[in-house]
Amino acid sequence: KGLAKKAGKANKHEIKKAAVLGAGIMGGGIAFQSASKGTPIVMKDINQGALDQGLAEASKILNKKLKKGRIDGNKLAQTLNNIEPTLNNEALKDTNFIIEAVVENPKVKGAVLAEVEGLVSEDTIITSNTSTISINKLAESLKRPENFCGMHFFNPVPLMQLVEVIRGEKTSEETVAATVAYATKMGKTAIVVNDCAGFFVNRVLFPYFAGFSLLLNDGAKFANVDKVMEREFGWPMGPAMLLDVVGIDTADHCTDVMAEAFPTRMQKLENDPISVLYNNEFYGQKNTKGFYQHSLDKRGRPK
Ligand code: 3HC
């Protein structure tokens, strides 16, 4: 009920064009989701390779749907047309809703958020797709924290129904309402949560990953754990495969944030297998090397 009321209030802030900062698999998934539900979106990155990966992600999803007859060529073209990939900040000036989705590092995120706030109009809503970093902490780098909140998507974005909308201490109700309304327009189910490191889902998920790491350090084999969790326990993916999907790099950064925020509950393990993989540049599905070896498509990109 509360959410419906909030979504009503959000009419004040109609989103004409959004922007996602940071392309790649997550940014590409967010861009696809917004574009396919009719809100044009700028996809901005500083790296042409990441932009290519973001666009490839959106095209891959659309082509799969086309092949299966779920969409026609027009819908495919319209959706791709709604995505504006760019390396240039100029393109952000006519957007009024920002989703920051850069690397999970408080300093980098803070700098990107402050920069974008200086470029956009005063009533633009700025959100962060951070997995774990406190929204109050990120808000410290902003002059208009009332226009800022968390908007946390899950991987793979097109398939995962939930979006967490995280309300910081200074976030206005209008900002929450507009963010819930946009998530709803994207076809997602939003839940509004108060701020803390890890929010709701990652406060459940990261202790689970920590338990998995402990099991491995006690001698369990990751493939056996996955087999049991998938076949016998019935979850769609075991923890090793899920870590590969989330990204070992992202998971390692998130583990650091959670350990700092909850020092007595979430210590970082010595020889944490997640960190060992990360330090050896095994980032999961995104660079094909993780717990598992992932395959490449015909153009040499991760499938
Ligand atoms: N992108 C887009 N579409 C995809 C896809 C992807 N990555 N993977 C599969 N699909 C499509 C398939 O083509 C298929 O389409 P169709 O219905 O048109 O035929 C459809 O999705 C179903 O495919 P599958 O049969 O392969 O799907 P499954 O039934 O195996 O489910 C899944 C796939 C939903 C990804 C399931 O494995 C799952 O729920 N895994 C767990 C994912 C999860 O927990 N994610 C959250 C991670 S935490 C996170 O991201 C937060 C961060 O902060 C750490």
TrEMBL record:
Coiled coil: none annotated. It comes from the Bacteria. Transmembrane segments: none annotated. Residues 198-293 form the 3-hydroxyacyl-CoA dehydrogenase C-terminal domain. Residues 17-196 form the 3-hydroxyacyl-CoA dehydrogenase NAD binding domain. In the central section; belongs to the 3-hydroxyacyl-CoA dehydrogenase family. This is enoyl-CoA hydratase. It comes from Psychrosphaera ytuae.
